[in-house]
């Protein structure tokens, strides 16, 4: 009888430890997210399931072209790509991204640009001053984000700059569906 009681205690203890470890990992390190909508096509597809690294931005700052998840509202998280960093001026003219008046290649848009007709617009022209907030440069603690599907994305062009406090973490790993399993690049 005593052995049986010790076996149950051992199982309960193991289960509690497993639950505690899962809680700590999910709260502080990694969470799953499901892509909702077409705003990151062709990089990410609707219903792709990904892992979000919540810890990364506690030890380093976001980098240009990181794919991040952020709180767009109390009830909705968005997934977009970091384009502009603190202290920078961002604009787009004739489908070309400019950071501090210097053209910057966007390798993740290469295929889309190659398939465009000469008169097509991938990204409507804009300057940072025209976005909500009217900034002349991105303030400290903020980033400018855009979806890869520029014609169908609610991003900094309409909702303004994103505070670092809104960012949940960086994501780069698609784990489901199996045929799309990959680490996405910049």
Walkthrough of the structure:
The chain is of the alpha+beta class. It has a single domain, classed as Umud Fragment, subunit A (Ribbon), CATH 2.10.109. The strands form 2 sheets. Strands 1, 2, 3, 4, 9, 10, 11 and 12 form an 8-stranded antiparallel sheet that branches. Strands 7-6-5-8 form a 4-stranded antiparallel sheet, with no helix packed on it. The longest helix has 27 residues. InterPro entries: LexA/Signal_pep-like_sf (IPR036286), Pept_S26A_signal_pept_1 (IPR000223), Pept_S26A_signal_pept_1_CS (IPR019758), Pept_S26A_signal_pept_1_Lys-AS (IPR019757), Peptidase_S26 (IPR019533). It is a single-pass type II membrane protein. Its main location: membrane. It is an enzyme of class 3 (hydrolase). It catalyses: Cleavage of hydrophobic, N-terminal signal or leader sequences from secreted and periplasmic proteins.
